Amino acid sequence: MAEPQAVAESRIEEYWDWIAVALFLLLAVDLLTTLAAARVVGVGAESNPLMRWLLGRDIVVVIAAHLVVVVLVTGCFRLLIGHLRRTPAPADRYFALLIEAWLGVLVAVGLGVFANNLAVIVLGQSLL
Fold it and tell me: Model pTM?
């Protein structure tokens, strides 16, 4: 009988799917809805100082900054997954659960930011 693999590769592949969803929400969706919200209420209403600064720059700079974040996050996530693969049992299961919780928080925050930006676009004011 073969020994069970500590953390299944299919589970790790699913983590990559979830980080992609989180990045899509936190970068692409946030950027598009932030640009729309800035048209409604102005750039000065942006609560994130880095994004407020970026909105004052050329769109190429804004997109380049977002692409740099994608590269950095995926690189760091690749290192994190490498550590997970090298973590011995049974600690690997706890580490995997921690990664899952972190990914869940990222997706939830992304959805929250999206909802807030939509509120600014539709209602003219933030939910916060």
Answer: 0.86
